[in-house]
Amino acid sequence: MPEFARVITVQGSPDKVDEAARYVKETVIPRASTLPGFRRGFWLMDRASGGGKVVTVFESKEALDSSAATAEQLRATSAAALGITFSSVENYEVVAEAGPPRS
Questions:
Q1: Could you tell me which residues are beta bridge partners of residue 4?
Q2: Which of 13, 49, 52, 61 is the most buried (most CB within 10 A)?
């Protein structure tokens, strides 16, 4: 069964990257990880520009779709707490993945 991902583009202040990372680890990840069908997530930041991407992966399109309202609430709370903006939210099917060879 294919997985599905939400990819979000974020812009914040370069001087608040550490604060944002702490907020994500303490607030966002604990909430995101309880969403039904959540598999994994990546919160990526460029320290020089303050820009970044968020990639969350779900076990099915239904799980991705059902998480949309909670994800929107998390973005709104994060924006208010950190003064960041989200410029795009896109959904994709994961069609390939690579990792280290398994022994």
A1: 58, 93
A2: 52
DSSP class of residue 60?
S
Measured distance CA(77)–CA(1) in Å, rounded? 32
What tens digit of pLDDT does each residue of 66-86 get?
999 999 999 999 999 888 999
Cα–Cα distance for residue pair 36/62, rounded to 1 Å: 10
Distance of CA 18 to the CA centre of its chain: 16
**Tokens representing residue 4 in the block:** 């599905």
Contact of 27 with 79, CB cutoff 8 Å? no
Could you tell me which residues are beta bridge partners of residue 62? none
Q: Are 11 and 84 in contact (CB under 8 A)?
A: yes
What pLDDT does 1 receive? Answer: 76
What stretches of the chain adopt beta strand conformation (E)?
3-11, 38-45, 51-58, 85-94
What whole-number distance in Å separates Cα of residue 103 and Cα of residue 62?
Answer: 33
pTM value surpassing 0.85: yes
